[in-house]
């Protein structure tokens, strides 16, 4: 089904971290720029780094889309997008930072998303399925504990944590961006903190439509974008949102998003399948170096994300004072300085 709020974005669009703010590191690396850009001998050279990876599932075999950028035997980052149902499009800002840091990285559209296959089978819309999917992608890309950093943003953060609970022996490092360890805590923050920042009449109208299940009402998306998304999802006027963000919302698979997350980023309402997910008591099980990234204006509680970093035995916290849920865009220098420093610090 076509998501109405995607159309709203198009219509409107077209009418400290606690470290110093400095550019990402530029010092001499173990590999040369020539080596980083040398794709000779790679089996994806004719496709520009793109691989369609076969995935075996309980409901048959499918393919998922990936794209590699760069070469670095020691630093390889697999990017897990949000949603569920989002796409790699949201991450295209990484092209402005990771190549200069000579980090090899992989765009990846999860099954049912973007350029990957769309079986449209709700039986596959489970955490268990996506964890096994990531493991098959890892194997196909040849990533291992000597080089494999798993990065997850939003829903991708849930998936990254769940992967680490089962397969951390394959990881060199873990990055959880803009995601708390408990959906009940996410909802509590949305309802008890962020909701109270909305005008009373706006909140009442939003809640009335949610109670009626009237999620396709254009007014619902209009209110959320005007009063919530530009404050807590991406802190820019809609007409200034970067093209990859606009394209990412356009390509969102709303069916899986609605089923697992619910109708919007304003907490989880209804019977979305992630509504009871909570791993807060289990974080100590993840032993690999872990970076948690939070932002002041996020849809997620930055204090909870700071707490999470303390629960991981080898955890660190990166705070973005200007950022929201898409802090990589609205607090870019803070975000990428801290992220790159973390990756390069893991030997």
Automatic annotation (TrEMBL):
Pfam families registered for this protein in UniProt? Abhydrolase_1 (PF00561)
User: Which SUPFAM superfamilies has this protein been placed in?
Assistant: alpha/beta-Hydrolases (SSF53474)
Q: Which residues form the active site?
A: 154 (nucleophile), 298, 325 (proton donor)
Looking at the keywords, is Transport present?
no
Hey, which family's this protein in? Belongs to the peptidase S33 family.
Keyword list (alphabetical) reads: Hydrolase
Molecular function (GO) terms for this protein are: peptidase activity
Residues annotated as domain AB hydrolase-1 = 77-331
Spell out the protein name for this chain: Alpha/beta fold hydrolase
Q: Which GO terms describe its biological process?
A: proteolysis
């Amino acid at each position: 089904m076509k998501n109405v709020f995607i159309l709203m974005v198009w219509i409107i669009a077209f009418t400290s971290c606690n470290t110093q703010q400095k550019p990402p590191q530029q010092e001499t690396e173990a590999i040369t720029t020539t080596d980083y850009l040398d794709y000779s001998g790679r089996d994806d050279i004719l496709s520009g780094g793109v691989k369609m990876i076969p995935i075996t599932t309980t409901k048959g075999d499918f393919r998922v889309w990936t794209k590699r950028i760069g070469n670095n035997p020691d630093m390889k980052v697999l990017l897990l997008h949000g949603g569920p149902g989002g796409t790699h499009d949201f991450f295209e800002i990484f092209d402005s930072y990771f190549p200069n840091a000579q980090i090899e990285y992989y765009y990846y559209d999860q099954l049912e998303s973007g350029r990957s296959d769309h079986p449209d089978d709700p039986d596959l819309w489970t955490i268990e399925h996506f964890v096994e999917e990531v493991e098959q992608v890892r194997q196909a890309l040849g990533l291992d504990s000597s080089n494999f950093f798993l990065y997850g943003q939003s829903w991708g953060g849930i998936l990254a944590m769940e992967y680490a609970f089962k397969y951390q022996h394959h990881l060199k490092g873990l990055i959880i961006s803009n995601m708390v360890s408990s959906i009940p805590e996410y909802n509590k923050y949305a309802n008890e903190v962020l909701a109270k920042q909305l005008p009373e009449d706006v909140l009442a109208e939003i809640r009335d439509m949610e109670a009626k299940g009237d999620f396709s009402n254009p007014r619902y998306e209009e209110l959320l974008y005007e009063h919530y998304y530009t404050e807590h999802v991406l802190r820019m006027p809609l007409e200034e949102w970067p093209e990859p963000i606009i394209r990412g919302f356009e390509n969102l698979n709303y069916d899986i998003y609605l089923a697992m997350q619910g109708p919007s980023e304003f907490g989880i309402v209804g019977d979305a399948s992630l509504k009871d997910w909570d791993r807060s008591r289990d974080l100590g099980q993840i032993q690999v170096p872990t970076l948690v990234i939070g932002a002041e204006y996020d849809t997620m509680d930055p204090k909870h994300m700071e707490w999470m970093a303390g629960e991981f035995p080898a955890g660190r916290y990166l705070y973005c004072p200007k950022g929201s849920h898409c802090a990589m865009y609205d607090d870019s220098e803070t975000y990428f300085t801290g992220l790159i420093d973390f990756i390069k610090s893991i030997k």
